[in-house]
Amino acid sequence: MKRSLLVEGQGGPLAAVVVAANVPDVQVLGATLDAVVIPRPDPEQDEQHLCLDKGYDSDDGWGEALEHGYAPHIAQVHDSRPVPPQRRHPPKRWVVERTLAWLSKCRAILIRYDKRPENYFGLIQLACALLWFRRLDVLR
C-alpha cells in the first residue's frame, strides 16, 4: 500500500491518496492534486509552488503540475531540462517525509490491520485531521 500526500510548507496534510504499492508515483500525482480538501487560492493571482522528487521527473509529472496551476520544482534525474539559476528552488522532500513519520505514529496506520482500502484510507484521513487539531494550538 502506498500513501501519496500533498502538504503545505509547514507539513500540514492537504490531500491524501491510497493506491497499490506497484503504482508509480507519477501516475498518482493527478489524483493527489485533485484530492485537496480545502479551496485553493486562484493560481493566476497567487503563484503556488509544488516541490517534487526525482520520481516525478517525466513529461507526465511536469504536465500534471502545470495543468493544475502549480509552478513545479522537480529534482531532475538528468539535466535535460536546465532550470535558470535565479528561479531554482530545491525540492524540500523532508517536509513530506516528516508528515509521513507523524502519521506512522498511529499504530493502525503503521501496521495495516484493515483489509479493505476504504477503511485504511479513512484512518489516514482521521490521522490527518488529528495532526491539524494538534497544530491548532501552535497556529493560534
Q: Unreliable runs, pLDDT <50, ≥5 residues?
A: none
| Shape designation | globular
Order of helices and strands: EEHEHEHHH
CATH fold annotation: Nucleotidyltransferase, domain 5
Strand share of the residues?
15-25%
List the total number of helices.
Answer: 5
- Spatial ordering of strands, largest sheet: 1-2
What distance separates the N and C termini? 35 Å
Average the pLDDT over all residues and give the rounded result: 85
Sum this structure up briefly.
This protein is of the alpha+beta class. The protein has a single domain, classed as Nucleotidyltransferase, domain 5 (2-Layer Sandwich).
Outline the structure in words.
This protein is α+β, with helices and mostly antiparallel strands. The protein has a single domain, classed as Nucleotidyltransferase, domain 5 (2-Layer Sandwich), CATH 3.30.420. 41% of the residues lie in helices and 16% in strands. It contains five helices and four strands. The chain has helices at 25-34, 59-67, 93-104, 107-110, 117-139; strands at residues 2-7, 13-19, 48-52, 70-74. The strands form two sheets. It has a two-stranded antiparallel ribbon. It starts with a strand and ends with a helix. 16% of the residues are buried. The mean pLDDT is 85.
